[in-house]
Amino acid sequence: MRLDKWNRWKPMSLKSFISLFLVAVSLTVMTASCAPGNGGGASGSKELTLVSYAVTRAAYENIIPLFTKQWQEKTGETVTFAQSYGGSGSQTRAVIDGLDADIVALALSADTLQIQEAGLIQPGWEKKTPNGDGIVHRSVGVIVTRAGNPKNIQDWDDLARDDVSVITANPKTSGGARWNYMALWGKITKTGGTEAQAKEFVTKVYANVPVLPRDAREATDAFFVQNQGDALINYENEVILAKQQGQDLPYVVPDVNISIDNPIAIVDSYVDKRGNREVAEAFVQFLFTPEAQREFAKVGFRPVVPEVATEFADKYPKISTLFTIEDFGGWNQVSPKFFADGAIFDDIQASIGRR
Q1: Taking the model in full, what pTM does it have?
Q2: Cα separations (Å) of 63 from 13, 133, 287?
Q3: b (16+ CB within 10 A) / e for 38-71
Q4: Conformational region of residue 119, where left means phi above 0, alpha means psi within -120 to 50, and beta covers everything else
Q5: What radius of gyration, in Å, describes the C-alpha atoms of the chain?
């Protein structure tokens, strides 16, 4: 199925912070026009379909022209891009349901693994990238506070205080909210605590959550529009991008944190059907060049290429204790252990309900 079947055009105000968190918005952007043909393009041209999550748009708008110029100079072939941006979970479902993406750049590897499990991506996709792990950029968790930080919130520990109300989405329904949950869990287990102590700490935090919005958009609405909560758990890249768009939000970056690793993958079934493998692989490789990595870094993502990370070291504070989802066994173990029906998160919610 083509991209236009899935996309619903919506305006996106750069002046509104809330718009940066619209995880349900999707749109199509064409870098150039082309006639139908092989891979969606005319003779001597290709059309790639990139499906990603909302806040990556600012980076790809700058990266894609750099690649298309380089590719044309190298091969003489014109490449155009159809782009879809939306919530990572909804984008995942769309691809599984027939949106013929050549490339998916999603918020977490668990979403990419769902597409793999649907038989559309071949196992080992992560090893095909230059760094061998499929991660194209990173971020970390942050705590957004009210203006002036009246509750003096400085770390994850403060979210467990009796006088602090916390806003975060429901990890049962929001993939992004699972990063929030695992950051809290790792705050204990990656600093010498036991899993029992981690469960106790996370229970205290979620007892301070007045509502569990379905997704990041609703969580942002609850905090900024409905004025609920003293703190919003979010991501460094989103608040940096918000600042660039005129919203200078007060936030803290906890010194014990999770590396929010964002993957890139080629959708094998679709890319072969469309005859786009060569150019799709070239684009993925290009994303790991210093040229492309700088564009990610400019809009708030932590680069994965060491030399670029060094260039932007002043922009991104060093985290003293930084752990990854792999430290918990990867999403294949994390998802059933914590978020399946009857798993740890359900048990935590049940214990809160009994209080």
Answers
A1: 0.86
A2: 21, 21, 8
A3: ebbbbeebbbbbbbbbbbbbbbbeebbeebbeeb
A4: left
A5: 20
* pLDDT higher than 90, residue 316: yes
What backbone torsions phi and psi does residue 343 show, to the nearest 5 degrees? -85, -165
Tell me the pLDDT band of 140, cut-offs 50, 70 and 90. very high
Distance CA 251, CA 147 (A): 9
- The Cα 275–Cα 81 span in angstroms is 14
Q: Could you read off the pLDDT of 21-43 as tens digits, one per residue? A: 433 344 444 443 333 334 544 44
On whether the CB atoms of residues 179 and 258 are closer than 8 A, the answer is yes
Mean pLDDT of the chain: 89
pLDDT, position 44: 84
Determine if residue 203 is left, alpha or beta; phi over 0 gives left, psi from -120 to 50 gives alpha, anything else beta. alpha
Token couple for 96: 């599984």
**Helix (H/G/I), strand (E/B), else coil: 83:** strand
Q: Rounded to an integer, what distance in angstroms lies between the CA atom of residue 58 and that of residue 52?
A: 11
pLDDT band at 279 (very low <50, low <70, confident <90, very high): very high
Q: How far apart are the first and last CA of the chain?
A: 49
